[in-house]
Specification:
CATH class: Mainly Beta
CATH topology: Umud Fragment, subunit A
CATH architecture: Ribbon
Order of helices and strands: HEEHEEEEEHEHEHEEE
Number of domains: 1
Radius of gyration: 21 Å
CATH superfamily: Umud Fragment, subunit A
Strand content: 25-35%
Helix content: 25-40%
Largest sheet: 8 strands, antiparallel
Structural class: alpha+beta
Shape: elongated
Length: 183
C-alpha cells in the first residue's frame, strides 16, 4: 500500500512540475498568436499561426524590419513590422522609405509593389506630418504593416511604446503550406 501511495505522489509531483513549466514557458518565453486580417500580406496571411518570442527584447534591442506583436490601443494585439527605431526620422516619398534621409530597401515589398497599378503601395508622408514629432521618441517604435494600403499602424495609432511590445515573431507553424521562417 505504501508503494502505491509513493508512486501516486511521484506522478503528482511530475504533473505539477510539467504544468508549472508550461505556464512559465507560455507567459514568459513563447506564446502562440493567430494573424487576424490581411495587414501583413503578402508576408503573412490571415489565420497564419505563429510563435511569439517574448524573451527576445529582454536580452537585446529591436532591429529595423523585425516583425513584432504589441498591445494596440484597442485592447487587441497587432502584428506589424518595425520601420523606425528611437531617434529615427521617417519619411515615405515615391514609394521609397527614407530613414534619416537615406533611402532604405524593403525587399519584402518588391513583388507587392510590382502588382500595384493604380498608384503607390505606400502613400507619401513624413513622421512629423503624422505625429507632430521630427523623430521617433526614445522608448518608442514606428511600425507598419506590409499591406500598406490596408494596415492600421503607426500612421494611424502613433508610435508604439516599448513596454507594449510582447516580443518578435518570425516562425509560422500553421497552416502546413506556410510553415517556415518569414523575413
Amino acid at each position: 500500500m505504501a508503494k502505491k501511495k509513493n508512486e501516486l505522489w511521484e506522478w503528482t509531483k511530475a504533473l505539477i512540475i510539467a504544468v508549472l513549466l508550461a505556464v512559465v514557458i507560455r507567459f514568459f518565453l513563447f506564446a502562440p498568436i493567430v494573424v487576424d486580417g490581411e495587414s501583413m500580406m503578402p508576408t503573412l496571411h490571415d489565420q497564419d499561426r505563429m510563435i511569439v518570442n517574448k524573451f527576445s527584447y529582454k536580452i537585446g534591442e529591436p532591429e529595423r524590419f523585425d516583425i513584432i506583436v504589441f498591445h494596440a490601443p484597442e485592447n487587441k494585439d497587432y502584428i506589424k513590422r518595425i520601420i523606425g527605431l528611437p531617434g529615427d526620422k521617417i519619411e515615405y516619398q515615391n514609394d521609397t522609405l527614407y530613414v534619416n534621409g537615406e533611402a532604405i530597401e524593403e525587399p519584402y515589398l518588391d513583388d507587392f509593389k510590382n502588382q500595384v497599378i493604380d498608384g503607390p503601395l505606400t502613400e507619401p508622408f513624413t513622421l512629423e506630418e503624422l505625429t507632430g514629432q521630427e523623430t521617433v521618441p526614445e522608448g518608442h517604435l514606428f511600425v507598419m504593416g506590409d499591406n500598406r494600403r490596408y494596415s492600421k499602424d503607426s500612421r494611424h495609432i502613433g508610435t508604439i511604446p516599448m513596454e507594449k511590445v510582447l516580443g518578435n515573431t518570425s516562425m509560422v507553424y500553421w497552416p502546413l503550406e506556410d510553415i517556415g521562417i518569414v523575413d
